[in-house]
C-alpha cells in the first residue's frame, strides 16, 4: 500500500481536505500532519500529527518515508514555514509533490511562489486559477477539480437553514442580518481593523441599521478586538446593534452565512461560499486595507466583483456601504441582478471535487 504524507497549515485548506480524507482511507497509508491549532481542530477526528515548527519536519518525514507529498496550503506569511520544510525534503527525495489551492493566486504568496517550481501537480478550483498559474510560468500539471469545501454546499437547503438558525438565535425573519467576515490573521490584523471600523462607522449613520454579526477568523489570536473597537466608538454607533459574539461563534460558518441577508468584509473564502449559496457578498477593498492584501497576490480585485457576482467597495466613503445595504434590503431588482450573476458565473459544480482529487492522487500513487 502506497504512502501519502499530507500537510495542512490553515483552516481554509483544512475544510477543503476534510471530505478527501475518507476517500483515501483503506486505499493508501496516510499520515496527516497539521500546523498549529486551527487546522488541527477542524481535522482532529482524523488523529493528525502536530508539527508546529520547521525543526520537527525532518524526523516526521523520514520516519514515515512517503511515496507522495500532498500539500494543502494557504499563506502563513509569518510562519511557521512547515510546508516549505516538507517540500524541500520531498524534492531532495525525488518524490511527487501535489498542491491543493483553495483560493485564486495563492501561489503568489512569497513562501508558495518559492515552492511552486517543485510541485508536480496542482489542483485548481477553476479556469481562472489555472490561468494565473500559467501566467506565472508554472510548468507542472494543472487539474481543474473545483474546491472540495464547496461539495457540502450542494446539499444545503439555504431557506431551511435560514429559518432554523434565525429561530435558534431569536432573529425575526424581517430583521436584516449582516455578517462581518473577520480576516484578523496575524499578518492581516491592521487591515482587518481598518475595514471593521469603516463598516461599523458607516452602518451607524443609517436611520435603520442592520443587525451585525461579527465572525472572527479561526486564526485570529485576539477575537475580542471587535468588542473593544465597538466600545471605542460607542457614542457614535447610533442604533447599530450587534449579535452576541459568544452566540454567533458557535454557529457553523455556512449556517451563519445562510441565515444572513448579506456578508461583508475583506476578500475571503466565506465570500466565495456566500456566492455559491446565492447570498449577497460585499467585498470591502479599501486602499489602505483590502487592496494591500490583494496586491500581495497581484490581484486588482476580488474575482466575483469583476463579473457582478459580488459587490465591491473601493473607497473610504460611508455612503457607499449605506447605499448598498439599503438596496439589498429594499430593491428586489438589485438582488435579482446579483443572484443572476452568481448563477451564471459560479454555477454549483455537479461533480464531487473531493472524489475527483482522491482518484487523481491514487492514480499518481499507482
Overview of this structure, please?
This protein is an alpha/beta fold and 366 residues long. The protein has 18 helices and 13 strands. The protein has a seven-stranded parallel sheet, with helices on both faces. Helix 1 (11-17) runs parallel beside helix 3 (37-43) and helix 9 (189-203) packs across helix 10 (225-232). The termini are close together. The mean pLDDT is 93.
Tags for this entry?
366 residues; 15% strand; alpha/beta; six-stranded parallel β-sheet; globular; 13 strands; seven-stranded parallel β-sheet
Concise overview:
The protein is of the alpha/beta class and 366 residues long. α9 packs across α16.
Order of strands across the main sheet: 3-2-1-4-5-6-7
Q: Number of DSSP strands?
A: 13
Shape: globular
Q: Which stretches of 5+ consecutive residues score pLDDT under 50?
A: none
Query: How far is it from the N-terminal to the C-terminal residue, by CA?
Result: 9 Å
Write the layout of secondary structure elements.
Elements: E1 3-8, H1 11-17, H2 21-24, E2 29-34, H3 37-43, E3 49-50, H4 57-64, E4 68-73, H5 82-92, E5 97-101, H6 110-115, E6 121-124, H7 127-135, E7 141-144, H8 158-169, E8 177-181, H9 189-203, E9 211-215, H10 225-232, E10 241-242, H11 245-248, H12 253-259, E11 262-265, H13 269-276, E12 281-284, H14 290-296, H15 303-306, E13 311-313, H16 318-330, H17 332-345, H18 353-365
Parallel strand pairs: 1-2, 1-4, 2-3, 4-5, 5-6, 6-7, 8-9, 8-11, 9-10, 11-12, 12-13
Amino acid at each position: 500500500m502506497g504512502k501519502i504524507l499530507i500537510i495542512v497549515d490553515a483552516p481554509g485548506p483544512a475544510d477543503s481536505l476534510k471530505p478527501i480524507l475518507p476517500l483515501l482511507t483503506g486505499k493508501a497509508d496516510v499520515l496527516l500532519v497539521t500546523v498549529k491549532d486551527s487546522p488541527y481542530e477542524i481535522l482532529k477526528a482524523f488523529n493528525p500529527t502536530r508539527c508546529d515548527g520547521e525543526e520537527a519536519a525532518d524526523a516526521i518525514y523520514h520516519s514515515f518515508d512517503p511515496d507522495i507529498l500532498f500539500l494543502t496550503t494557504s499563506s502563513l506569511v509569518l510562519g511557521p514555514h512547515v510546508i516549505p520544510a516538507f517540500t524541500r525534503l520531498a524534492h531532495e527525495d525525488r518524490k511527487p509533490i501535489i498542491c491543493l489551492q483553495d483560493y485564486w493566486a495563492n501561489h503568489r504568496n512569497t513562501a508558495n511562489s518559492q515552492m511552486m517550481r517543485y510541485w508536480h501537480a496542482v489542483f485548481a478550483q477553476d479556469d481562472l486559477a489555472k490561468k494565473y498559474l500559467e501566467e506565472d510560468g508554472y510548468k507542472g500539471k494543472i487539474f481543474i477539480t473545483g474546491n472540495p469545501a464547496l461539495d457540502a454546499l450542494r446539499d444545503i437547503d439555504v431557506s431551511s437553514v435560514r429559518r432554523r438558525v434565525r429561530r435558534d438565535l431569536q432573529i425575526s425573519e424581517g430583521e436584516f442580518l449582516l455578517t462581518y467576515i473577520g480576516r484578523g490573521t496575524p499578518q492581516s490584523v491592521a487591515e482587518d481593523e481598518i475595514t471593521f471600523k469603516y463598516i461599523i462607522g458607516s452602518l451607524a449613520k443609517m436611520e435603520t441599521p442592520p443587525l451585525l454579526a461579527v465572525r472572527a477568523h479561526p486564526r485570529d489570536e485576539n477575537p475580542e478586538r471587535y468588542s473593544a473597537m465597538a466600545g471605542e466608538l460607542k457614542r457614535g454607533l447610533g442604533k447599530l446593534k450587534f449579535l452576541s459574539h459568544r452566540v454567533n461563534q458557535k454557529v457553523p460558518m455556512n449556517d451563519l452565512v445562510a441565515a444572513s441577508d448579506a456578508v461583508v468584509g475583506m476578500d475571503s473564502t466565506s465570500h466565495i461560499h456566500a456566492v455559491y449559496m446565492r447570498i449577497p457578498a460585499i467585498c470591502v477593498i479599501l486602499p489602505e486595507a483590502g487592496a494591500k492584501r490583494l496586491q500581495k497576490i497581484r490581484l486588482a480585485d476580488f474575482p466575483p466583483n469583476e463579473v457582478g457576482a459580488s459587490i465591491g467597495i473601493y473607497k473610504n466613503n460611508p455612503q457607499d456601504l449605506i447605499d448598498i445595504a439599503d438596496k439589498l434590503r429594499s430593491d428586489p431588482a438589485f438582488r435579482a441582478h446579483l443572484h443572476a450573476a452568481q448563477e451564471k458565473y459560479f454555477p454549483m459544480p455537479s461533480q464531487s471535487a473531493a472524489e475527483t482529487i482522491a482518484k487523481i492522487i491514487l492514480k499518481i500513487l499507482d
